[in-house]
Amino acid sequence: MEFTTLIRERESIRNYDPARTVEEDILNRILDAGRVAPSASNRQPWTFVLVSSSEKLKEVRKCYHKDWFKDAPHILVLVGHPSQAWERSYDGYNSMETDATIAMDHMILAAENEGVGTCWIVAYDKDTLTSALGLGEDESVFCITPLGYPRKGFQKKRNKIRKELSAVVRRI
User: Fold this and answer.
1) Fewer CB near the terminus (10 Å): N or C of the chain?
2) DSSP state of 69
3) Is the pTM of this model over 0.85?
4) What is the rounded CA–CA span in Å between residue 13 and residue 164?
5) Nearest to 120, CA basis, from 97, 143, 142, 99
6) What count of Cα atoms within 13 Å lies in the side-chain half-sphere of residue 15?
7) Distance between CA atoms of residues 99 and 102, nearest Å
């Protein structure tokens, strides 16, 4: 898909076909898009946890209580490692969240390019998710997204309302 079309037409999907899993080669291309994402000092302070087994999906789905979330055949969790991230020397700013944002955005756009639906979620129960994934002390869930094909007949809205360019750009 042409890039400008991709970024203009991508939208959050909340209607997944639970019977249709995403093919392994497509999942790998999506994950690889995150792997190659830039990060401060190329630290790559992340792990991408792809949840696909029915047992683990059952546990992980308890972190977010929306019916449509339970239909996605895969859940991608981006786990950040703050101790591995670059820190700015003069104020201690830790780049983990910025780096994780870039990686997740790469994967979400790659998924859109493959026809796979996503929905960036940060309103999850962190304790439930941390426990379900068995995360360690230096591991922090940054965000999650379901991965799956939209149900047959699902139509995108394609009417995103965005501010005008002049409202978000200041040229000096």
Assistant:
1) C
2) G
3) yes
4) 24
5) 143
6) 9
7) 5
Which two three-digit tokens encode residue 20? 């249709």
Q: What does the CA dihedral 101, 105, 107, 113 come to, rounded to 10 degrees?
A: 180
For residue 62, what is the DSSP state?
A: G
Task: Indicate the domain borders of the chain.
Answer: 3-168
| Residue for token pair 């079309």 | 5
Predicted confidence (pLDDT) per residue in 33-69, tens digit: 999 999 999 999 999 999 999 999 999 999 999 999 9
Distance in angstroms (rounded) separating the CA atoms of residues 134 and 50 = 14
CA distances for 145 relative to 1, 4, 75, angstroms: 21, 22, 6
d(CA 82, CA 138): 7
Whole-angstrom Cα distance, residue 80 to residue 96?
Answer: 6
Mean pLDDT value of segment 87-92:
98
Amino acid at site 133:
L
Contact 146, 74 (CB under 8 A): yes
Q: What are phi and psi of 43, to 5 degrees?
A: -75, -30
d(CA 139, CA 131): 11
Q: Are 74 and 27 in contact (CB under 8 A)?
A: yes
* CATH topology for the 3-168 domain: NADH Oxidase (3.40.109)
